[in-house]
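Work Package 4 report. The design task specified in the project plan requires that, given a folded chain encoded as C-alpha coordinates, an amino acid be chosen for each position. We show below one input record used in the internal validation round.
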Protein backbone atom coordinates (compact mmCIF):
# COMPACT_ATOMS: atom_id res chain seq x y z
CA UNK A 1 0.00 0.00 0.00
CA UNK A 2 1.41 3.38 -0.99
CA UNK A 3 0.40 6.55 0.83
CA UNK A 4 2.00 9.73 2.02
CA UNK A 5 3.67 8.73 5.30
CA UNK A 6 2.61 11.29 7.87
CA UNK A 7 1.81 11.28 11.56
CA UNK A 8 -1.85 10.65 10.75
CA UNK A 9 -1.20 7.67 8.47
CA UNK A 10 1.28 6.15 10.93
CA UNK A 11 -1.12 6.54 13.88
CA UNK A 12 -3.86 4.86 11.85
CA UNK A 13 -1.69 1.87 10.90
CA UNK A 14 -2.81 -1.41 12.52
CA UNK A 15 -1.63 -5.01 12.25
CA UNK A 16 -3.97 -7.71 10.90
CA UNK A 17 -5.99 -9.94 13.20
CA UNK A 18 -3.70 -12.91 12.53
CA UNK A 19 -0.65 -10.80 13.42
CA UNK A 20 0.81 -10.60 9.92
CA UNK A 21 3.08 -7.69 9.13
CA UNK A 22 1.55 -4.66 7.41
CA UNK A 23 3.74 -2.15 5.54
CA UNK A 24 2.94 1.32 4.27
CA UNK A 25 5.24 2.55 1.51
CA UNK A 26 5.72 6.23 0.94
CA UNK A 27 4.29 7.48 -2.33
CA UNK A 28 7.02 10.10 -2.79
CA UNK A 29 10.24 8.58 -1.42
CA UNK A 30 10.96 5.20 -3.03
CA UNK A 31 11.94 2.47 -0.56
CA UNK A 32 10.84 4.40 2.53
CA UNK A 33 8.14 2.76 4.59
CA UNK A 34 6.68 2.04 8.00
CA UNK A 35 5.67 -1.39 9.19
CA UNK A 36 3.62 -2.74 12.05
CA UNK A 37 4.11 -6.26 13.28
CA UNK A 38 2.27 -8.30 15.88
CA UNK A 39 0.80 -5.96 18.47
CA UNK A 40 1.30 -2.24 17.94
CA UNK A 41 5.07 -1.88 17.51
CA UNK A 42 5.79 0.28 14.46
CA UNK A 43 9.16 0.81 12.81
CA UNK A 44 10.42 2.95 9.95
CA UNK A 45 12.28 0.98 7.27
CA UNK A 46 14.20 1.55 4.06
CA UNK A 47 14.66 -0.84 1.13
CA UNK A 48 17.32 -0.08 -1.47
CA UNK A 49 19.61 -1.76 -3.99
CA UNK A 50 23.39 -1.51 -3.89
CA UNK A 51 24.77 -1.15 -7.40
CA UNK A 52 23.01 -0.75 -10.74
CA UNK A 53 20.72 -2.98 -12.72
CA UNK A 54 17.73 -5.11 -11.83
CA UNK A 55 19.92 -7.84 -10.37
CA UNK A 56 21.61 -5.56 -7.83
CA UNK A 57 21.14 -7.04 -4.33
CA UNK A 58 18.22 -5.71 -2.29
CA UNK A 59 19.06 -4.42 1.16
CA UNK A 60 16.60 -3.92 4.03
CA UNK A 61 17.40 -1.48 6.81
CA UNK A 62 15.46 -0.55 9.95
CA UNK A 63 15.73 3.17 10.68
CA UNK A 64 14.15 2.98 14.11
CA UNK A 65 11.02 2.44 16.14
CA UNK A 66 8.19 4.95 15.89
CA UNK A 67 8.29 7.37 18.79
CA UNK A 68 10.81 9.91 20.03
CA UNK A 69 13.12 10.65 18.38
CA UNK A 70 11.76 8.93 15.26
CA UNK A 71 8.67 10.55 13.82
CA UNK A 72 7.42 10.51 10.25
CA UNK A 73 9.40 13.68 9.55
CA UNK A 74 12.69 12.70 11.21
CA UNK A 75 12.57 9.19 9.74
CA UNK A 76 11.97 10.64 6.26
CA UNK A 77 15.00 12.90 6.68
CA UNK A 78 17.10 9.92 7.76
CA UNK A 79 15.90 7.89 4.79
CA UNK A 80 16.98 10.67 2.43
CA UNK A 81 20.41 10.75 4.08
CA UNK A 82 20.81 7.00 3.68
CA UNK A 83 19.72 7.10 0.04
CA UNK A 84 22.32 9.78 -0.59
CA UNK A 85 24.93 7.28 0.62
CA UNK A 86 23.51 4.71 -1.82
CA UNK A 87 23.93 7.19 -4.69
CA UNK A 88 27.63 7.39 -3.78
CA UNK A 89 27.89 3.64 -4.33
CA UNK A 90 28.12 2.76 -0.65
CA UNK A 91 25.99 0.51 1.53
CA UNK A 92 24.37 2.51 4.38
CA UNK A 93 24.12 -0.66 6.48
CA UNK A 94 27.88 -1.05 6.36
CA UNK A 95 28.44 2.65 7.06
CA UNK A 96 26.09 2.48 10.02
CA UNK A 97 27.84 -0.56 11.48
CA UNK A 98 31.15 1.29 11.31
CA UNK A 99 29.86 4.42 13.07
CA UNK A 100 31.65 5.94 16.04
CA UNK A 101 30.69 5.04 19.57
CA UNK A 102 29.65 7.81 21.94
CA UNK A 103 33.05 7.51 23.63
CA UNK A 104 34.87 7.91 20.31
CA UNK A 105 32.67 10.83 19.32
CA UNK A 106 33.44 12.58 22.61
CA UNK A 107 37.17 12.03 22.03
CA UNK A 108 36.86 13.60 18.56
CA UNK A 109 35.13 16.60 20.13
CA UNK A 110 37.72 17.01 22.91
CA UNK A 111 40.56 16.72 20.41
CA UNK A 112 39.01 19.52 18.36
CA UNK A 113 38.39 21.58 21.50
CA UNK A 114 42.04 21.27 22.55
CA UNK A 115 43.02 22.51 19.08
CA UNK A 116 40.77 25.57 19.45
CA UNK A 117 38.21 24.35 16.89
CA UNK A 118 35.14 24.31 19.17
CA UNK A 119 33.41 27.67 19.53
CA UNK A 120 31.46 28.99 22.51
CA UNK A 121 28.20 30.89 22.19
CA UNK A 122 30.36 34.01 21.95
CA UNK A 123 31.96 32.50 18.80
CA UNK A 124 35.33 32.17 20.47
CA UNK A 125 37.35 28.99 21.03
CA UNK A 126 36.71 27.21 24.30
CA UNK A 127 39.27 28.09 26.94
CA UNK A 128 41.70 25.38 28.04
CA UNK A 129 40.28 25.44 31.58
CA UNK A 130 36.78 24.78 30.22
CA UNK A 131 38.09 21.91 28.10
CA UNK A 132 39.63 20.33 31.22
CA UNK A 133 36.22 20.43 32.91
CA UNK A 134 34.64 18.91 29.78
CA UNK A 135 37.23 16.12 29.87
CA UNK A 136 36.27 15.35 33.45
CA UNK A 137 32.56 15.18 32.67
CA UNK A 138 33.16 12.92 29.70
CA UNK A 139 35.50 10.53 31.53
CA UNK A 140 33.61 10.45 34.85
CA UNK A 141 30.01 10.38 33.63
CA UNK A 142 29.42 9.96 29.89
CA UNK A 143 31.90 7.18 29.13
CA UNK A 144 30.96 4.85 32.03
CA UNK A 145 27.22 5.14 31.38
CA UNK A 146 26.72 5.41 27.60
CA UNK A 147 30.22 5.38 26.08
CA UNK A 148 29.90 2.03 24.32
CA UNK A 149 26.64 2.83 22.53
CA UNK A 150 27.08 3.61 18.79
CA UNK A 151 26.75 7.38 18.46
CA UNK A 152 24.27 6.98 15.62
CA UNK A 153 22.02 4.75 17.77
CA UNK A 154 21.97 6.87 20.93
CA UNK A 155 18.40 7.80 21.84
CA UNK A 156 16.87 10.33 24.16
CA UNK A 157 15.82 7.52 26.51
CA UNK A 158 19.50 6.51 26.86
CA UNK A 159 20.47 10.07 27.75
CA UNK A 160 17.58 10.33 30.19
CA UNK A 161 18.73 7.18 31.96
CA UNK A 162 22.25 8.62 32.13
CA UNK A 163 20.96 11.88 33.60
CA UNK A 164 18.89 10.01 36.19
CA UNK A 165 21.89 7.89 37.19
CA UNK A 166 24.13 10.94 37.63
CA UNK A 167 21.44 12.75 39.63
CA UNK A 168 21.19 9.72 41.94
CA UNK A 169 24.97 9.76 42.52
CA UNK A 170 25.69 6.47 40.72
CA UNK A 171 28.88 7.89 39.19
CA UNK A 172 30.16 9.26 42.51
CA UNK A 173 33.75 8.23 43.19
CA UNK A 174 37.01 9.53 44.63
CA UNK A 175 39.98 9.65 42.28
CA UNK A 176 43.62 9.93 43.32
CA UNK A 177 46.15 11.56 41.03
CA UNK A 178 47.84 14.73 39.94
CA UNK A 179 45.97 17.94 40.76
CA UNK A 180 45.78 19.27 37.20
CA UNK A 181 44.61 16.00 35.71
CA UNK A 182 42.23 14.89 38.42
CA UNK A 183 41.30 17.89 40.57
CA UNK A 184 38.97 19.58 38.13
CA UNK A 185 37.21 16.36 37.13
CA UNK A 186 33.53 17.07 36.59
CA UNK A 187 33.99 20.55 38.03
CA UNK A 188 34.24 19.21 41.55
CA UNK A 189 36.42 20.72 44.29
CA UNK A 190 39.60 18.71 45.00
CA UNK A 191 41.19 18.27 48.42
CA UNK A 192 44.96 18.73 48.77
CA UNK A 193 47.45 18.06 51.52
CA UNK A 194 48.67 21.15 53.38
CA UNK A 195 52.00 19.59 54.37
CA UNK A 196 54.67 21.61 52.50
CA UNK A 197 57.07 18.66 52.61
CA UNK A 198 54.71 16.49 50.58
CA UNK A 199 54.48 16.94 46.84
CA UNK A 200 50.83 17.80 46.18
CA UNK A 201 48.95 15.07 44.39
CA UNK A 202 45.46 15.44 45.83
CA UNK A 203 42.25 13.59 45.25
CA UNK A 204 39.22 14.52 43.17
CA UNK A 205 35.82 13.96 44.73
CA UNK A 206 33.09 13.41 42.13
CA UNK A 207 29.71 13.52 43.82
CA UNK A 208 27.25 13.73 40.93
CA UNK A 209 23.85 15.17 41.72
CA UNK A 210 21.09 16.97 39.85
CA UNK A 211 23.22 19.99 38.98
CA UNK A 212 26.02 17.84 37.57
CA UNK A 213 23.49 15.81 35.57
CA UNK A 214 22.15 18.98 33.93
CA UNK A 215 25.63 20.17 32.98
CA UNK A 216 26.62 16.78 31.56
CA UNK A 217 23.47 16.62 29.42
CA UNK A 218 24.14 20.16 28.20
CA UNK A 219 27.69 19.16 27.24
CA UNK A 220 26.47 16.03 25.42
CA UNK A 221 23.95 18.12 23.48
CA UNK A 222 26.75 20.47 22.46
CA UNK A 223 28.89 17.54 21.34
CA UNK A 224 26.10 16.23 19.11
CA UNK A 225 25.43 19.69 17.66
CA UNK A 226 29.13 20.00 16.85
CA UNK A 227 29.19 16.49 15.33
CA UNK A 228 26.05 17.06 13.24
CA UNK A 229 27.65 20.08 11.55
CA UNK A 230 30.52 17.81 10.53
CA UNK A 231 28.27 14.93 9.40
CA UNK A 232 29.59 12.59 12.08
CA UNK A 233 26.02 11.96 13.21
CA UNK A 234 22.60 12.66 11.78
CA UNK A 235 19.05 12.81 13.00
CA UNK A 236 17.60 14.43 16.13
CA UNK A 237 19.93 15.48 18.92
CA UNK A 238 19.41 12.79 21.63
CA UNK A 239 20.02 15.30 24.43
CA UNK A 240 17.13 17.52 23.33
CA UNK A 241 14.08 17.21 25.58
CA UNK A 242 15.86 15.33 28.39
CA UNK A 243 14.45 16.22 31.81
CA UNK A 244 16.99 17.72 34.21
CA UNK A 245 16.72 19.88 37.29
CA UNK A 246 16.78 23.58 36.60
CA UNK A 247 19.35 25.40 38.69
CA UNK A 248 18.15 28.37 40.68
CA UNK A 249 19.89 31.68 40.12
CA UNK A 250 22.29 32.28 42.99
CA UNK A 251 22.02 35.47 44.98
CA UNK A 252 24.58 34.79 47.72
CA UNK A 253 26.38 37.97 48.76
CA UNK A 254 28.50 38.67 51.82
CA UNK A 255 27.23 40.83 54.67
CA UNK A 256 29.40 43.36 56.47
CA UNK A 257 30.12 40.88 59.27
CA UNK A 258 31.08 38.19 56.78
CA UNK A 259 33.42 40.54 54.96
CA UNK A 260 35.10 41.39 58.28
CA UNK A 261 35.48 37.66 59.03
CA UNK A 262 37.02 37.14 55.62
CA UNK A 263 39.36 40.08 56.17
CA UNK A 264 40.58 38.55 59.45
CA UNK A 265 41.19 35.21 57.72
CA UNK A 266 43.18 36.93 54.97
CA UNK A 267 45.34 38.76 57.52
CA UNK A 268 45.94 35.56 59.49
CA UNK A 269 46.96 33.52 56.42
CA UNK A 270 48.93 36.13 54.49
CA UNK A 271 52.33 34.65 55.36
CA UNK A 272 51.21 31.07 54.64
CA UNK A 273 49.28 31.75 51.42
CA UNK A 274 50.55 35.10 50.04
CA UNK A 275 49.36 34.63 46.45
CA UNK A 276 45.87 33.26 47.25
CA UNK A 277 45.35 36.07 49.77
CA UNK A 278 46.39 38.69 47.21
CA UNK A 279 44.11 37.09 44.60
CA UNK A 280 41.09 37.20 46.93
CA UNK A 281 41.77 40.84 47.77
CA UNK A 282 42.03 41.64 44.05
CA UNK A 283 38.73 39.88 43.32
CA UNK A 284 37.07 41.75 46.19
CA UNK A 285 38.32 45.14 44.96
CA UNK A 286 37.63 44.61 41.24
CA UNK A 287 34.82 42.06 40.88
CA UNK A 288 37.01 39.93 38.60
CA UNK A 289 36.21 36.29 37.99
CA UNK A 290 38.62 33.96 39.74
CA UNK A 291 40.00 32.75 36.40
CA UNK A 292 40.55 36.34 35.27
CA UNK A 293 42.39 37.26 38.47
CA UNK A 294 44.61 34.16 38.47
CA UNK A 295 45.46 34.60 34.78
CA UNK A 296 46.22 38.34 35.03
CA UNK A 297 49.36 39.49 33.20
CA UNK A 298 51.45 42.53 34.09
CA UNK A 299 51.00 43.76 30.52
CA UNK A 300 47.22 43.91 31.05
CA UNK A 301 47.48 46.42 33.91
CA UNK A 302 47.06 50.07 32.88
CA UNK A 303 47.50 52.07 36.07
CA UNK A 304 47.57 55.37 34.19
CA UNK A 305 44.24 54.57 32.58
CA UNK A 306 42.79 53.16 35.83
CA UNK A 307 41.81 49.93 34.13
CA UNK A 308 42.70 46.36 33.28
CA UNK A 309 42.87 45.45 29.60
CA UNK A 310 42.10 41.75 29.69
CA UNK A 311 42.95 39.93 26.48
CA UNK A 312 41.02 36.71 27.10
CA UNK A 313 37.89 36.47 29.24
CA UNK A 314 34.63 34.56 29.10
CA UNK A 315 33.30 37.24 26.73
CA UNK A 316 36.55 37.97 24.87
CA UNK A 317 38.69 41.07 25.25
CA UNK A 318 37.48 43.30 28.05
CA UNK A 319 38.42 46.64 29.61
CA UNK A 320 37.63 46.86 33.35
CA UNK A 321 37.79 50.13 35.28
CA UNK A 322 39.55 49.83 38.66
CA UNK A 323 39.53 52.09 41.69
CA UNK A 324 42.36 53.42 43.83
CA UNK A 325 42.20 50.51 46.29
CA UNK A 326 42.79 48.02 43.45
CA UNK A 327 45.59 50.13 41.94
CA UNK A 328 47.34 50.36 45.31
CA UNK A 329 47.11 46.59 45.75
CA UNK A 330 48.53 45.87 42.30
CA UNK A 331 51.41 48.29 42.86
CA UNK A 332 52.27 46.56 46.14
CA UNK A 333 52.54 43.06 44.67
CA UNK A 334 56.04 41.63 44.09
CA UNK A 335 57.05 40.75 40.53
CA UNK A 336 57.60 37.00 40.79
CA UNK A 337 57.42 36.60 37.02
CA UNK A 338 58.01 38.88 34.05
CA UNK A 339 54.64 37.88 32.61
CA UNK A 340 52.23 36.62 35.28
CA UNK A 341 50.98 38.50 38.33
CA UNK A 342 50.28 35.13 40.01
CA UNK A 343 52.78 32.67 38.48
CA UNK A 344 53.06 28.94 39.05
CA UNK A 345 56.05 27.37 40.81
CA UNK A 346 58.17 27.35 37.65
CA UNK A 347 57.21 30.88 36.69
CA UNK A 348 56.28 29.77 33.18
CA UNK A 349 52.51 29.88 33.56
CA UNK A 350 49.64 31.07 35.72
CA UNK A 351 49.02 29.68 39.18
CA UNK A 352 46.11 27.37 39.98
CA UNK A 353 44.71 28.86 43.17
CA UNK A 354 41.20 27.40 43.29
CA UNK A 355 41.78 25.03 46.22
CA UNK A 356 43.88 27.53 48.18
CA UNK A 357 41.30 30.27 47.77
CA UNK A 358 38.60 27.86 48.94
CA UNK A 359 40.62 27.18 52.09
CA UNK A 360 40.69 30.90 52.87
CA UNK A 361 36.89 31.11 52.76
CA UNK A 362 36.68 27.98 54.93
CA UNK A 363 39.10 29.54 57.42
CA UNK A 364 36.74 32.52 57.69
CA UNK A 365 33.85 30.17 58.52
CA UNK A 366 32.30 30.82 55.08
CA UNK A 367 32.07 27.27 53.78
CA UNK A 368 29.14 28.14 51.51
CA UNK A 369 31.02 31.05 49.91
CA UNK A 370 33.50 31.02 47.05
CA UNK A 371 35.17 33.60 44.84
CA UNK A 372 32.17 34.11 42.54
CA UNK A 373 30.06 35.11 45.55
CA UNK A 374 32.65 37.82 46.23
CA UNK A 375 32.28 39.00 42.62
CA UNK A 376 28.50 39.01 43.11
CA UNK A 377 29.02 41.05 46.30
CA UNK A 378 30.95 43.65 44.29
CA UNK A 379 27.96 44.01 41.96
CA UNK A 380 25.56 44.15 44.91
CA UNK A 381 27.53 46.97 46.52
CA UNK A 382 27.44 48.86 43.22
CA UNK A 383 23.66 48.42 43.10
CA UNK A 384 23.43 49.54 46.73
CA UNK A 385 25.30 52.69 45.75
CA UNK A 386 22.60 53.42 43.19
CA UNK A 387 24.52 52.64 40.00
CA UNK A 388 22.52 51.50 36.96
CA UNK A 389 22.51 48.00 35.51
CA UNK A 390 24.52 49.26 32.54
CA UNK A 391 27.23 50.68 34.81
CA UNK A 392 27.40 47.49 36.87
CA UNK A 393 27.66 45.45 33.68
CA UNK A 394 30.62 47.58 32.59
CA UNK A 395 32.30 47.15 35.98
CA UNK A 396 31.90 43.37 35.86
CA UNK A 397 32.50 42.86 32.14
CA UNK A 398 29.01 41.48 31.52
CA UNK A 399 27.72 43.70 28.76
CA UNK A 400 28.35 42.79 25.08
CA UNK A 401 30.91 45.09 23.57
CA UNK A 402 30.18 47.19 20.52
CA UNK A 403 32.37 47.38 17.43
CA UNK A 404 34.32 50.36 18.77
CA UNK A 405 35.24 48.68 22.04
CA UNK A 406 36.08 45.35 20.42
CA UNK A 407 38.50 46.79 17.88
CA UNK A 408 39.91 49.97 19.40
CA UNK A 409 41.80 50.65 22.63
CA UNK A 410 39.95 53.04 24.88
CA UNK A 411 39.97 54.25 28.44
CA UNK A 412 36.96 53.90 30.71
CA UNK A 413 35.32 57.24 31.26
CA UNK A 414 35.68 59.13 34.54
CA UNK A 415 32.22 58.11 35.74
CA UNK A 416 33.08 54.40 35.49
CA UNK A 417 36.42 54.87 37.24
CA UNK A 418 34.65 56.83 39.99
CA UNK A 419 32.12 54.01 40.36
CA UNK A 420 34.87 51.39 40.58
CA UNK A 421 36.71 53.54 43.09
CA UNK A 422 33.65 53.98 45.31
CA UNK A 423 32.73 50.29 45.31
CA UNK A 424 36.28 49.03 45.88
CA UNK A 425 36.77 51.52 48.71
CA UNK A 426 33.63 50.28 50.48
CA UNK A 427 34.58 46.64 50.18
CA UNK A 428 38.18 47.29 51.25
CA UNK A 429 36.88 49.11 54.33
CA UNK A 430 34.55 46.22 55.12
CA UNK A 431 37.40 43.70 54.87
CA UNK A 432 39.65 45.71 57.15
CA UNK A 433 38.47 45.49 60.78
CA UNK A 434 40.78 48.37 61.73
CA UNK A 435 38.46 50.83 60.00
CA UNK A 436 35.76 50.19 62.58
CA UNK A 437 32.14 49.16 62.14
CA UNK A 438 31.05 52.69 61.24
CA UNK A 439 32.71 52.24 57.85
CA UNK A 440 30.67 49.18 57.02
CA UNK A 441 27.21 49.40 55.45
CA UNK A 442 25.28 46.14 55.58
CA UNK A 443 24.67 44.87 52.07
CA UNK A 444 21.17 44.09 50.86
CA UNK A 445 21.09 40.52 49.48
CA UNK A 446 18.44 41.44 46.97
CA UNK A 447 20.23 44.50 45.67
Amino acid sequence: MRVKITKRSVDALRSTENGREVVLWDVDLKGFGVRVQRGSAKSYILHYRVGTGRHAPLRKLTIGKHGSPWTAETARAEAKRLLAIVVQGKDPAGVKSQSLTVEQLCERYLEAARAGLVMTRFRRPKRSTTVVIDEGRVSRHIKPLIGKIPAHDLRRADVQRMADAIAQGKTARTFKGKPRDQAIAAGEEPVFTTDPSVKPRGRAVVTGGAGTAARVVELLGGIYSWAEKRELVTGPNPARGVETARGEAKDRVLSGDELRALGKALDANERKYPMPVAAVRLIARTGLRREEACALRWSEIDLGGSCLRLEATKTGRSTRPIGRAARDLLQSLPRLSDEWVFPNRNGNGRAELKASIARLFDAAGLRDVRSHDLRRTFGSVAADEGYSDATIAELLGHSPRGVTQRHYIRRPDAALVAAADRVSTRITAALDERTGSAEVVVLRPGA
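DSSP finds 17 helices and ten strands in the chain. Validation will be extended to a larger panel in the next phase.
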